[in-house]
Amino acid sequence: MERGSVTTPFGRRPMTLGMLSSQIASRTQAERSVDKWKLFRWLCEAKTVVGVSDRSLAVLNALLSFYPGSELAKGNGLVVFPSNAQLSLRAHGMAGTTLRRHLAALVDAGLILRRDSPNGKRYARRSHSGSVREAFGFDLSPLIARAAEFETTSAQLAAERQHLRVMRERLSLCRRDVAKLLDLVRESAPQVDWQDYALLYEHLTGPLPRKPSPADIEALLGSMERLRCDLTNRLEKLLNSGKTDTNDRQNGCHIQNTHPDSLSESERGLGKGSEQILRNDAEASPATALTKRLPRPAPGGAPWSSASADRSTTPFQRPHRKIPLPAILQACPQIADYGPSGQISSWKDLMTAAIVVRSMLNVSADAYDAACSVLGCENAATVVACILERAEHITSPGGYLRELTKRAQRQEFTLGPMIVALSRAKQSAGKEPGGIVLAY
């Protein structure tokens, strides 16, 4: 089917450098096969970066429907040759002039190539056995050549949308916290000068643009978090100074820590030079430290299962990001190969790589979205990186991720032991790795 190294268009259409570069790129492509509908989904998600419209993608969808089979492969022949009438029918009755305009847009974007016959018609010559020997029409080989580009761009845009959604959620929660803290200051300490905080809050809750950028939301979130921190510190000072009229009878029950030598919930670091993974109880806020001091069951009393039942009734709280990124990359080095340009330098790069790895491990989007909603986007990406490290020992990565999500929702799973186990496995590479347990 090769007619030479370069193919020029028929009629008055001129040859351009873009056409030449597309032909060279498609000729030097690697021998690989790509699912055409999966590639089309990547292209739809990355259409703003590629520079094609939805109508042009509808024409490309019609062209792909004329290719036999679901796998695009160079050895099967990548030239499709439908007539304009048939192509218009599969493009939902698109007019002929509109169809030709969008075909030209696909060629200009470097997604297809023209393989024009001497008279400009589209047809194929077949051998005696019935196989296509030479075809004239539209060549789909640039799609295979740029498949990796479309996949990476699609993953990056998905990570950016997810990051933007998380920032908006955090901003909504922070607004709610500040509003209720202001109401608390007004009710409990009306003599305190809180008008400046209220004016600042009204200024920060002004209308956002219709499509705010991630930088705008991050800047607004930072200002709102600083305001929340100032209000919290002001209320803590009021509590410590005794200005609010409270006593033990108003609290209803006074909780005491009768076991000061109880085990700390913090975990060990990852070794020399590593950062601390979890905070100690002494470094936590007073409210957090109070909730961690649970009384032990008295001798002869109710079994410990009742405490577990009480814990099940506690409202679920999404875990915060506690493990530093260098510690994750030290324990899970393979995830760096799937980051942008083969490296990970930020949490956003880690989430981008996790989306690529999730697709590679055949983990469904529903399972990953559920993990993000329970664990948080950063922690869910960390779990995917850990699963990648132990992929050869995990039969069903999707089922494993769903099980970890359920355990995290019951507050029975934390990321610290998983990272520590993988880090110890890297340090003792000569030992038998079969006994490493990922989750606790």
General description of the model:
The relative contact order is 0.07. This protein starts with 16 loop residues before the first helix and ends in a 13-residue tail after the last helix. Helix content is 53%, strand content 5%. The chain has helices spanning 17-27, 36-45, 47-50, 54-65, 84-90, 96-108, 141-145, 147-188, 195-204, 214-241, 248-251, 286-292, 305-312, 325-331, 347-360, 365-375, 377-389, 397-409, 415-427; strands at residues 33-35, 71-73, 79-80, 113-115, 123-126, 132-139. Among the domains are: 17-145, Orthogonal Bundle (Arc Repressor Mutant, subunit A); 150-205 and 215-230, no CATH class; 325-427, no CATH class. Mean pLDDT is 75; it is low at 243-316 and 431-440. The protein has 440 residues and is mainly alpha-helical. Strands 3, 4, 5 and 6 form a 4-stranded antiparallel β-sheet that branches. A two-stranded antiparallel ribbon has the order 1-2. It is elongated and about 95 Å long. It has 19 helices and 6 strands. A hairpin with a 5-residue loop joins strand 5 (123-126) and strand 6 (132-139). The longest helix is centred in the middle third of the chain and has 42 residues, at 147-188.
N-to-C SSE string, H for helix and E for strand: HEHHHEEHHEEEHHHHHHHHHHHHH
CATH class of the domain at 17-145, please? Mainly Alpha
CATH architecture grouping of the domain at 17-145? Orthogonal Bundle
Which range best describes the helical content: under 10%, 10-25%, 25-40%, 40-55%, 55-70% or over 70%? Answer: 40-55%
User: Largest beta sheet, briefly?
Assistant: 4 strands, antiparallel
Q: What is the C-alpha radius of gyration, as a whole number of Å?
A: 30 Å
State the CATH topology of the domain at 17-145: Arc Repressor Mutant, subunit A
Mean pLDDT: 75
Low-confidence stretches: 243-316, 431-440
> What sort of overall outline do the alpha carbons produce when their principal axes are compared?
elongated
- What fraction strand? 5-15%
The number of distinct β-strands equals 6
How many individual helices? 19
Q: By helix and strand content, what is the structural category?
A: mainly alpha
First CA to last CA: what distance?
Answer: 58 Å
